[in-house]
Amino acid sequence: MAEAAQNTADPAAAFTPRVFSGIQPSGGLTLGNYLGAIKRFVEMQGGAYETIYCMVDLHAITVWQDPATLARNTRELCAGFIASGIDPEQSILFNQSQVPEHAQLAWIFNTIARMGWLNRMTQFKDKAGKNRENASVGLFAYPALMAADILVYHATHVPVGEDQKQHLELTRDIAAKFNHDYGVDFFPITEPVIEGAATRVMSLRDGSKKMSKSDPSDMSRINMTDDADAIAQKIRKARTDPEALPSEIAGLEGRAEARNLVNIYAALSDQDVEQALREVGGKQFSEFKPLLAELAVAKLAPISGEMARLMEDTAEIDRILKRGAERARSIAAPILKDTYEIVGLVGAGS
Ligand code: AQP
Question: Could you tell me the distance, in angstroms and rounded to a whole number, from the CA of residue 22 to the centre of ligand 1?
Fold first, then answer.
């Protein structure tokens, strides 16, 4: 049996240190995805962990996707990962649908997760909106597939933005219930890694809403493919308040929009919020916004330029994804096989 855990104080400790995380190709990459996820993925690469990063296309289709756009977004997301610094040799980089073990384990987890657990998921409530009866079954079952994405690799750590915290808790609940029900220590209790100054980047138009690829307003987000003019214009028009920036974090209390722009500034300049405020505290937005725009363009323009270059050779992107999927399957297949055996599915051992 692959890597069964021992009983130790840290439930993830007996497993190979392994990072898994994914992003949906449900639109173009945003600054939120970059600061909350990809930048963190790059930082975890080449360290103590084996790193596995995935374009979760099966998640994306839980809401309608035009097929040609989905294929383009998947390749562009792959280009975004590489342009941001993910090395497809060092990390395993692939799209979810090429590794069928994700969907197979998700079915097992559909039998483990409870209706009550899924009913509490705020992302389903947000995305289904008022018309819950019309939402896809896939959107409801999304967290069980996400648990399978992670646990089919026995991943010990998952870097994500703040919005995914609840899904990560559900992943831990599913692993614990599976282990308990079958009397095994088979799945690790995965640790979420939610760190940095920008774990929740907010909409530029509304500081109470998360910046999102699928927000109908393009002005609400910075896309990784935006040019310098678009970035500068979006920051210039970003909602703010009339006060100058404070010098202490406490002064951002109740100022969601100001807090958001400062968080973005801190994350882009690799500082914590306190350090950033020491630099920009006391400035009016008329002075701070051009600084932020300049920083954002300096950091993002090389990435978007490289993405465009990589997108000129989609055959190479497809080769990278295929090779990544083969490497991913070599880890996932034995773990799925062991899962089937534990569950008592005949033929799994042969
Ligand atoms: N605004 C954000 N701030 C910080 N992190 C964020 N992430 C997403 N938005 C922000 C992180 O990016 C990773 C990938 O997210 P996803 O694509 O799987 O789904 P999502 O969280 O639902 O992202 P979007 O952009 O809002 O997509 P749509 O519009 O399709 O729903 C995750 O780690 C997430 O935390």
Answer: 10
Binding site membership of 28 for ligand 1 (Cβ less than 6 Å): no
Ligand 1 close to Cβ of residue 337 (< 6 A) = no
Give Rg (Cα) of the chain.
21
d(CA 185, CA 11): 9
pLDDT digits (tens, 9 = 90+) for 36-60: 999 999 999 999 999 999 999 999 9
Domains of the chain as residue ranges with CATH:
18-199+313-343 (3.40.50.620), 218-309 (1.10.240.10)
| Phi–psi pair at 22, nearest 5 degrees | -140, 160
Rounded to a whole number of angstroms, the distance between the first and last alpha carbons of the chain is: 13
pLDDT at site 197: 85
**Whose structure tokens read 């089937």?**
340
pLDDT at 269: 96
Which pLDDT belongs to residue 217? 95
Q: State both tokens at 33.
A: 């995805």
- For residue 163 and ligand 1, the question of a CB distance below 6 A is answered with yes
* Contacts with 204 (C-beta within 8 Å, 6 or more apart), sequence order: 211, 219, 220, 221, 222, 234, 235, 237, 238, 239, 260
> Which residues are designated catalytic?
127, 210, 213
* 99 CA from centroid of ligand 1 (Å): 22
pLDDT tens digits, 265-277: 999 999 999 999 9
Q: Say what the pTM is.
A: 0.93
Residue nearest to atom 2 of ligand 1 (CA): 32
Q: Which residues of the chain have pLDDT under 50?
A: 2-9
In this structure, the residue with its CA closest to atom 33 of ligand 1 is 160
